[in-house]
Predict the 3D structure of the following.
Amino acid sequence: MITTQALSGKSRVRHGFFTREGGVSEGLFASLNCGFGSGDNPDHITANRSLAMRRLGLEGDDLVTLFQVHSADVAVVDKPWNPGQAPRADAAVTRRPGIALGILTADCAPVLLADGEADVIGAAHAGWRGALAGIVEATVEAMCVLGAERGRIGVAIGPCIQQDSYEVGAELRAEYLSASALSGDFFKPSDRDGHFMFDLPGYLGRRLEDLGLKSVEGSDEDTCADETRYFSYRRATRRREKDYGRGLAAIVLTG
């Protein structure tokens, strides 16, 4: 489990970006697969989620995750739900202690946020669609509705696919440039004609910094390149594997 400086100094906040290590799943899902959206044994997934929560001093039932759809929609969490009742959204915020907000990823960026003074936390799933649509801005706005202030919010962008692994087509780059010419800073030419390498965490970091937050911390861990520690949709696709595991990031307010 990886923790960050941006969130570790807040007395009532616990968080972690979990690697794929330390679980009970097997084969393509080995070993800490926490995503019910995969084809893994549901009992193994339940056990893995409980193992992860124990690292945060919680029970498996304290974890809530979303039905992630690459949107800019945010759920306000007042009480836990069962995995089958998860809302369709890509971020969650709460001020209720004891509820762990979880994000599932396999190359997309998990983003954890906290205002330790207002006791408001958030968690977001940011792939290229959600990032462009404004998922991080929507999450910060939802936190502020609950009493957070931008100048007190610390943010950590967790392990995700890095630029050297993330080749995209010209159409995706054009979509970003149509939204803002400044987006061009996050693309560099690929070895293939008409393709580019996209810096997803760098792009997210710029958008978060533009919000005037207290601190924004990134990660240079590449989920696609590091098979030992991370699940990766892109790596699985390249190998024509039939499925892949999902890694967990979680944040909670203690009681």
Summary: Residues 5-162+221-253 form a domain with the CNF1/YfiH-like putative cysteine hydrolases fold (CATH 3.60.140.10). The first strand starts at residue 13 and ends at 17. The CA atoms of residues 74 and 91 lie 5 Å apart.
